[in-house]
Structure formats: structure tokens, C-alpha cells
């Protein structure tokens, strides 16, 4: 969602039809962010081990606090860099598409409800739990069947 908000601000978009393409293009970033979080957790394994050693020794030093502070800084820096990189790619992609088409790409017939639904898909994709994907597809199938009656 932050990517789409940044794009809407950059291009001055306030119509649902114009935001449909940026939302669809930004969906893979949800999956990629799960990978970035996994890499970040692997990088912090040594800090976790230091906290465990600190807890077992029972020392009164601020070693654990320092590890936690570095961890928070690392998370912030990694996510800010990731957001900026994704935002640059998304803005570049949409700029290229609008240059090629001569206008911002739009999808007619899209309402704000549709966009919120697709944004929810991005949130589910970032969960990294395959059962949540299956549950979402089952709910989507049920809603589609109910709406088609």
C-alpha cells in the first residue's frame, strides 16, 4: 500500500481507474518483502545468539540492549532502502508505460472496493503461509459463486 500511496502522490492520481495498474504492478513487492524479511532474520541470527549468551550469564551489562538497538536500526534501514528501491522501480515502470501509451494507464469500471480487495491480496501474499493462500482462494471462489447467483 505504501508503494501505491507514493505513486499516487508522485503522479497526482486520485481516481480508482488510474490506481488499478500501479496496484497490480506492486503486488509482487509483497512476496519480495517476505524474502527481504527472511534475509534480515538470517542476518540477525548472531545477535540472537549473543542475547541468549547474555541471558545465561546473567550479567548486568547493556549488551542485550545494544543488540536490540542495532537490530531495530537494521530493520529500519533495510525496509527504507527496500521501499525506496521498489518505489523507484514502480515509478519508472509507470512512467515508461505512460510514455509509451501517451497517458497514464487506466482500467475502466474499477471502483475503490476493487482496489481495496486487491490490496488485501498483497497483504495475504506477504503472510508467507501457504494455507492462507489456499484459504483466500477458497473464500474468493465462494464469493464469486455467491455473486454470480
TrEMBL record:
<feature type="transmembrane region" description="Helical">
    <location>
        <begin position="132"/>
        <end position="148"/>
    </location>
</feature>
<keyword id="KW-1133">Transmembrane helix</keyword>
<keyword id="KW-0472">Membrane</keyword>
<feature type="transmembrane region" description="Helical">
    <location>
        <begin position="67"/>
        <end position="94"/>
    </location>
</feature>
<feature type="transmembrane region" description="Helical">
    <location>
        <begin position="106"/>
        <end position="125"/>
    </location>
</feature>
<keyword id="KW-0812">Transmembrane</keyword>
<protein>
    <submittedName>
        <fullName>Uncharacterized protein</fullName>
    </submittedName>
</protein>
<feature type="transmembrane region" description="Helical">
    <location>
        <begin position="16"/>
        <end position="34"/>
    </location>
</feature>
Amino acid at each position: 500500500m505504501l508503494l501505491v500511496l507514493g505513486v499516487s502522490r508522485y503522479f497526482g492520481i486520485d481516481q480508482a481507474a488510474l490506481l488499478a495498474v500501479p496496484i497490480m504492478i506492486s503486488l509482487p513487492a509483497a512476496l519480495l518483502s517476505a524474502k527481504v524479511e527472511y534475509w534480515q532474520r538470517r542476518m540477525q541470527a548472531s545477535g540472537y545468539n549473543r542475547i541468549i549468551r547474555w541471558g545465561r550469564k546473567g550479567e548486568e551489562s547493556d549488551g542485550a540492549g545494544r543488540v536490540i538497538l542495532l537490530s531495530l536500526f537494521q530493520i529500519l534501514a533495510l525496509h527504507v532502502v527496500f521501499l525506496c528501491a521498489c518505489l523507484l522501480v514502480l515509478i519508472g515502470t509507470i512512467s515508461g508505460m505512460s510514455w509509451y501509451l501517451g497517458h497514464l494507464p487506466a482500467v475502466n469500471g474499477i471502483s475503490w472496493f476493487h482496489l481495496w480487495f486487491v490490496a488485501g491480496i498483497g497483504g495475504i501474499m506477504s503472510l508467507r503461509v501457504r494455507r492462507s493462500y489456499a484459504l483466500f482462494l477458497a473464500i474468493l471462489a465462494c464469493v464469486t459463486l455467491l455473486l454470480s447467483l
